[in-house]
Design brief:
2 domains; globular; alpha/beta; FAD/NAD(P)-binding domain
């Protein structure tokens, strides 16, 4: 006899994990189906609610929510839903930013300043609102972060502090193509290294020193009075608190991480926190294989996972679609149409493909807002405006009506709609 879950969530990104955690905390038996690794590994680790509206930076997202278009996902969940999403996030992480509704301004690896609602504690000392002089440190093997260029761009942007940048060799005999995860592991373990200007010789033999100490010694000559030091976000994967505390002490200045692109250690740390929370709430996770089909008609009975050529059904009462948007293949397209590939939900799009985009690369492209439309219960709607299925909801990037990249709203939408869908699905189970 098939085991039936109360709620089956399709998709293991932030939206899917928020949905599963929300439903489980309400008492539901939850199954989370994830095909690939979470996109958090490719994200900065920052959590944005709404960074930009029109051409302007948003100081307080909650002031702007009522002005968003009716089709925006935030209008489906309202201000309370957004706050509930952030509350769930705060319960899982040790991020900063929960003390205020206002966005913080976080310097990024490109030398820009990004408005965001939540940020890792390891980033807090680097906020652009802080007046302390700043040294940015890059490493020769971490080519994505050019610290001198980033410092120049920060200074040109008008930040209220002096910023300087320097590029140094990472201490130790690491390969020139060493991945940042290798460097992070060395800092986690505080591996002992030999040689170089930080090595100490005794009786003609170079002594080894801990890599955290060697790194601080390499940076110290460049401080020149700076009270805080920004490093690329590689300061440990498993023990970042210890790494940063040691660097603070050795440098006599506050160390902080500058958010980076993929692979993102802050994103990996965040994913680990959520996986731990899901495990603690009893969520059963099945990963590594795609959902390719479903069973049912007006009501879904099961979703079908393909595993080594076999079709394996996962039965449930309520289902939530959290497969992401165009980037994550939760929305697919060919030359003539746009579609949602799991349940074949309707995705509104102009018939003429040339109406999907504008001429300029950075124009307001319609395709950026492609996705399923939902009602106030977050149920996907067909072309006539009726729910596609009685027991299906959609959350996160698969939703249409907003441009998460331009707005910097992706994480906020994922959290808010995920929490709302998890609760609504559990309510239906218990109705």
């Amino acid at each position: 006899m098939a085991i039936e879950d109360d709620v089956v969530v399709v998709g293991g990104g932030l939206a899917g994990m928020a949905t599963a955690l929300s439903a489980a905390r309400e008492g539901a038996r939850v199954r989370l189906l994830s095909h690939k690794e979470s996109t958090l590994r490719n994200a900065s680790g920052l959590v944005d609610v709404l960074g930009y509206a029109g051409d302007g930076v948003v100081a307080n997202p909650f002031d702007v929510l009522p002005e968003l278009p009716n089709e925006h996902p935030y209008r489906r969940v309202g201000e309370e839903g957004v706050r509930d999403g952030l509350a769930l996030f705060d319960s899982v992480t040790d991020y900063d930013g929960g003390h205020t509704d206002r966005n913080a301004l976080v310097p990024t690896f490109g030398g820009n300043v990004k408005p965001t609602a939540r940020y890792p504690a390891h980033t807090a000392a680097g906020l652009a609102s802080d007046l302390r002089d700043t040294l940015l440190v890059g490493f020769e093997t971490v080519v994505d972060f050019d610290a001198p260029v980033a410092a120049e761009r920060l200074a040109a942007s008008g930040v209220p502090f002096e910023s300087r940048g320097v590029t140094l060799p990472f201490p130790g005999d690491f390969r020139t193509d060493a991945r940042i995860t290798r460097l992070a592991h060395a800092l986690d373990e505080n591996e002992r290294i030999e040689g170089g200007r930080t090595g100490r010789k005794r009786a003609g033999v170079t002594e080894s020193v801990p890599v955290r100490t060697a790194l601080a010694e390499r940076v110290k000559p460049h401080l020149d009075g700076a009270e805080r030091v920004g490093f690329p976000a590689i300061l440990g994967q498993d023990e970042p608190d210890e790494v940063r505390a040691d660097l603070d002490r050795e440098l006599g200045a506050d160390a902080f991480e500058v958010p980076m692109g993929p692979p993102s250690l802050p994103g990996m740390r965040l994913e680990t926190r959520f996986h731990r929370a899901l495990r603690d709430e009893g969520v059963r996770t099945t990963a590594g294989n795609p959902v390719v089909d479903f069973e049912g008609d007006d009501r879904i009975r099961a979703v079908v996972v393909e595993r080594n050529g076999a079709r394996i059904p996962f039965h449930g009462e309520q289902f939530v679609l959290a497969t992401g948007g165009l980037v994550g293949k939760g929305i697919d397209s060919d030359r003539g149409s746009v579609r949602e590939p799991v349940f074949d939900c309707h995705v509104p799009a102009p018939d003429d493909r040339y109406d999907w985009f504008e001429d300029g690369a950075f124009d307001d492209h319609p395709f950026a807002r492609f996705g399923v439309q939902v009602d106030d219960e977050l149920r996907p709607l067909d072309s006539t405006g009726e729910p596609e299925f009685e027991n299906l909801r959609a959350v996160g990037g698969v939703l249409g009506g907003y441009d998460f990249a331009a707005e910097k709203s992706g994480s906020g939408v994922s959290l808010a709609t995920g929490v709302a869908a998890g609760r609504k699905a559990n309510d239906e189970v218990n109705a």
